[in-house]
Amino acid sequence: MAADDWYQRRRKDEVGKFFRKVASQGPRDPNQTQQGHYVFTAKGTLLGFNNNRGPEKRLAMMKEALKKWEALPEVEKTVEVPEKGKSDERYHHELPEGGEIVKVFTRCLEAREGRLQKLAADKVGNQAAVDHLWFQQAEVEKLGQLIAEGGGEVPAWLGLRIARFHLRDNTRGEPRDWKNDEIKKWSLKVDGKGKMSGDFLIDSADGKLGYEGELRGHLAVERGKLVKFDLLVIGSHWGHGEFTWGARPGKTPMGQVFQLSEGKEVRDRIPPQGIRWAEGYWKPGRFEFKKGEKGAELEQKGDGIHPLDLVLVAAIKEARDKKRTIWEVRKTLGKERMFDGINWYQDSKYFRIHAKDKALNCFLNKKGTSLIWKLPSSEKLMGRTQLAGLLWKEPKVSELFFGEVANFNTER
Amino acid sequence: MKIFSAILVMGLGVLCAQAKPSGEAVVTEILPSADESAWQQIDWKTDLWEARREAAKTGKPIYLWEMDGHPLGCV
Q1: Among candidate residues A158, A130, A155, the one with its CA nearest the CA of residue A271
Q2: Inter-chain touch A216–B49, beta carbons under 8 Å
Q3: List of chain B residues whose C-beta atoms are within 8 Å of the C-beta of residue A234
Q4: Which pLDDT score is estimated for A317?
């Protein structure tokens, strides 16, 4: 059994509950990562744990655990496993129906004997890393349409998805997602025959972490299905992230191969590393939050309506129509899987809705009749806070939201 | 920058017009070898509940490899 701890330790469902029961018997701080190697019974009794990468120590732990297993009475070895129940969708992702999987292999390279080769076996990060790029069916259809029309620049959602979540060095650990403004240069074109070509430069603000290179490949779509997606990326990367220590100094070569997968094996259906915030993965150009602004303002980019907008509008409509209080609205929003909570700042008409580690800032106008939100800069944030600084003590939502919901985006 | 350009040319030089990664030397270097990916041939479960059910049915303990970043899909 293999699992991503980031999801597993957060899940608020039967799976998460069971895992936490097992992990709580080990040495890990329950508020920190739970990663490691566990051996336990189907009942949930922990028999062994370590977090050692050395195969000898891992094997020793497993052997020790097996001894404990052998010593257990039979009644401890069997259990009637109950129904799993509904999965916590915030921390459980599946490929959308009709979606496609592309495997992404990454390897640090070095020039030897006049050609690029994998790093020597004794070097850190010499092994290939794997990730998965996901497409939705409608997206594949759009790519097919682009080729049929003679080609052009691939849509921004695909370019940014590849650039932000898949062009990165994951050979020594978990890399962070790139931010939109770190994509300094980007081009990926496909021609009328499906040939792909492009180049890119990704660089952090301090210049300490980056990747630049070229992309070449070929894609084909038949009857709305992706039948080929071969992409080779050769570039030069530099620096390391918080969890990817051990990079070679300076700019060094790295290669990536993207290959279509039929997804037949369990290992091929692992969600993309970058899909932890699913909306950001599917619509990478839609929203961008500035560095260090956790829960800060939202920048409007791209097109379309973000699901947050729809859920919020629906919740406010319901609150208005049913004359609910703000606290009841809060409950309504809390039921939506993408909302972690909503904070109301008393004594002002400012509130903040959290989704994962992001947030929307929302305001009321002077009359208190409509919302002002999606503020693009901190300067306006301060101004609007002052503007909306009327005393507000748990009023009825109906008194505040009697303006037309459709006007929410029009007034500042 | 000159060194980088030379490396890039070297890597890209192996590409034909219709890139066919599976046949190219640099692609072979990047893709995991059979030895490297042997551990992936294990019939890994990714659903803890499914693993639990199978363990209960077959009378075996569960081994769980838990990592920040999926062991089968991050590094």
Answers
A1: A130
A2: no
A3: 7-8, 11-12, 26
A4: 56
- As given in the structure block, the two tokens for residue A247 are 């990079």
Beta bridge partners of A258: A104, A231
CA distance to partner chain A, nearest, from residue B3 (Å): 10
Contact A270 B26 (CB under 8 A): no
Amino acid at A349: K
What is the predicted pLDDT for the residue at A369? 34
**Any A CB within 8 A of B35 CB:** no
Q: Which residue carries 């299905």 as its tokens?
A: A225
| Inter-residue contact A160 to A284 (CB < 8 Å) | yes
State how far the Cα of A13 lies from the Cα of A302, in Å rounded to an integer: 34
Q: State the pTM of this model.
A: 0.71
Residue type, position A186, single letter: W
Average pLDDT in the A373-382 region? 33
Partners of B20 on chain A (C-beta within 8 Å) are 218, 230
Cβ separation B29–A107 shorter than 8 A: yes
**A182 vs A199, A302, A341, A348, CA distance in Å?**
14, 17, 29, 35
**B19 chain-A contacts, CB cut-off 8 A:** 195-196, 216-218, 230-232
CA A280 and chain centroid, separation: 7
**Residue keyed to tokens 């300067």:** A379
pLDDT reading at B24 higher than 80: no
Out of A37-46, A107-116, A286-295, B33-42, pick the least confident.
A286-295
Q: Other C-beta atoms within 10 Å of A121: how many?
A: 7
Token pair for A56: 């000898």
